[in-house]
What we know:
The chain is of the alpha+beta class. It contains 27 helices and 35 strands.
Amino acid sequence: MPERGDPRGRRIRLGAPSRRLRTLLLTLGIIAVLVVAWILFANFWTDWLWYKSVGYGNVFTTKLWTRLGLFLVFGVLMAAAVGLNMYFAYRLRPQFRGMSLEQQSLDRYRSALAPFRVWILAGLSVIVGIIAGTSAAGHWSTWLLFVNGVSFGVKDPQFHKDVSFFAFDLPFYRFLVDFAFIAVVVGLIVAVLTHYLYGGLRVQSPGARATPAAQAHLSLLLGLFVLLKAIAYWLDRYALAVHSGDFKEATQFTGLRYTDANAVLPAKTILFIVALICAVLFFVNVFRRTWALPIIGFGLMVLSAVLIGGLYPFIVERFQVKPNQQAKEAKYIEYNIKATRDAYGIADVNAEGYAGSTDTKAGLVDEARGAASIRLLDPNVVGPTFQQLQQLKQFYGFNTTLDVDRYVLDGKVQDTVIALRELNPNGLQNRNWVNDHTKYTHGYGVVAADGNQVDVYGNPEFIVSNITPDGTPSNLGTYQQRIYFGEKTTEYSIVGAPQGTAPTEIDYPDERLPGGQATYTYTGNGGVPIGSTFNKLLYATKFADGNILLSSSINEKSRILYNRTPKERVEAVAPWLTIDGDAYPAVIDGKIQWIVDAYTTTNGYPYSSRTTLGDTTADSAVRADQKRGTVGNTGNVNYIRNSVKATVDAYTGAVTLYQWDEQDPVLKTWMKAFPGTVEKKDKISPALMQHLRYPQDLFKVQREMLTRYHVTNPQTFFNGSDFWKVPQDPTTIKQAGGEQPPYYLSMKMPPAQGQAPETDQVFRLTSALVPNQRQSMAAFLAVNAQPGPDYGKFRLLSLPSTTTINGPEQMQNVFTSNPTVSTSLGTIGGLNASQVVYGNLLSLPVGGGMLYVEPVYVKAVAQNNSSYPLMKKVLASYGNTIAYEDTLEKAFAVLFAGAQGAVPNPGSPPPAGGTNTTPPPTGGATTPPSTTPPPAGGQQNPTVKQALDDAQKAIADADAALKAGDFAKYGDAQKRLNEAITRAVQAETAATAPAAPPASPTPGQTQQPALPPASGATPKP
Length: 1021
């Protein structure tokens, strides 16, 4: 570096940083390190405070110490592999090195590195050790399963080992071997470089290429590498039982096949022996110091891997298996079928023959009425309706997708659509830190509606609605109505105040109070105390929000609430569980409790086929509302159990885990690893038990597996001729894409052979299935979803292939292509002021056939998204008849009018706009009858005649109004038409003489159904 003098005679190095600059840089470096360290500490300590606040500190500590232990053990091992190999390679360096250009070049590097040799060795060892330790810490679950694993009590058919070996032991053995491979390879690389640098290995110098010491060192490392390869070959034998591959197109097959059992397995054993011999030759080379034998052995191992491990299985597959594959693979297909059905909990599900009738019969209408509490309120559709009718304040909101539960109302169990009025900060007009985090902190109250009824305007029949003051009883009793923890509460809130301080949190609206708004102070024990300066500083760092530290409204009684969604809380306290995508609320013992289903899974069940949870559970409802997605393990699994039912208190945030599956060995293993975290099943209260249900995501996984594994005959399974699939959702939410979701409803199933019919409706989860390459109905699947002796019992009704019954997509096509229906709904959509929304298409086995019911909603097209759907019509079908009516009862009257003894309820007027048509099975168009009001048969009395005249006048007025675009007059005419028909029917019913059949329709006469615009909007042409 050039130098120059200064006036004082000092020599200054040009370009060298000044002492002040060096001090500044050092200070900035120290500050940066301290800031990073503080951020890491703040996140770590706040996590610890949160776990303590929910009572699951042992989960935090168990996971922490496990990760720390793995980090230290494997980090030290990897650091030792690097450091010791560098050290011994240096110690074994030759004292004298021949003179050559190569060595002269290396001398410069040796001289430059000499002062820093120890630092390089230590630094490189530490860095590699940290990387390896961090990676090993991520395998904390593998370690805990290994040391706590319990027996499954089931052995695999090939190796006769308990399933726990494959699920708990084998993954840890594979991890150890993989880690050892990496350690040996890294050590080998470091040793080669060090030996080369210090002359133990020579590339260009004359004489031997390696010193005896370097040869011995490298031979030892190579021997260890080959020995590990031998161990890997041995473990590969067992891994064949959980190996997945394509057995046939689009069919994933897990486990050994004929070629695996008769060629690959013996080949792995031979390769294991060859690798052992090769490893011995390398170890012998430590003393003999000749590379001839190890190289021959290694070449033999490579050749064996190619010929025995690759070519031989190929020959067996091509010349033995392919020509007679069905017979060769039959035994292994049988293993796969049995293991898969056991692993997914469907071993007892067997298809039952179902008639698939299309004929009506006497008493069928009564059977249809009693078959199910047909849910007309679609929870996937009516979220906006709840929002508009029950939001009440702009800072409240409902989920897009609502939930289905059941409650005892007036002594009867009723299917109920339920939602919580949660806090929606996006609705605030004045957004600031104080309002967002200290004023608007909670939602308020439950909203519930009868799942089977709507009012005359198409609105839900609310069981619980509006906001009642705290402590006021409702149909659900008296309960704590404030909702501090919910699916929409994703922001943190700071709550609580000292005794005697005026409440500051915004509570429910109350017109009796000044300002029309009640206030409140949180009194629960949820959240973390944040009153101290230290805690405020911690959370200001965690949330990167200085207001927490500076706010004067935070005091010694304040608590901070975060991690507030139910699924988030359960996943945090039980990170070993997979969380169902649909948490649902229930009022239990005076509290609002979120109920969360959770699963234990593994990917190591031998012979059981794999599925991907994230894909299998992503139906159209999940795609339309991403919040409903599964949380946790969404990857490949081949074993699943609904082992835990969890609750989250909406007021305190308290999380409770209950053991649901008492036989699940995976849950028993985790309970050993995290003792005291899961309550026994008998701790579930009777009130909570009434609201538990069979979970949707588990059902989706099981129905997906049953599309193939309902086939138990290996030959039929091989052919794939009887495989099914889940139909695509044919309703409006199919715009998001995806399969038809399963539906909850109370229903009776047809009696099984030799058993008595069911006397009561049972809460079930149901789904339709269609053939793999067609859209007709193949099967109907239902599971008992209510706790009791038959909880989880499946019924799978298989329709005959000789009879064609429309599947859901075909049925939707039949509905929408019917001229009467399409004309009516097309008119609504063509007005550019209303939109048709199809509700859930329910499939029900009734009278040997399939009954389809679909509610039809109408909503106004509003620019400000203020419109909401109202249920206006019911589409129904049975056999070859469809109905398009105002109510379900009217639809039944049309569907079963031809059945002997099938009559509508007394006093029910025939609907205007009804259809009774015979569509072809594949959904072709039909010719609708006229919907002109029928004249009464027999002697018409003056009342009937006048009513019919009024009806005709109303039809004419409606047609004229529709052509003129005057929808106010059109609605008035429709109202007069309905009143006239009602008067005519009532007068005719009062007559003593029976009514004659309706007269034939007058050609050309049509009537548009009465469908007033939703939400009070006025349609525009």
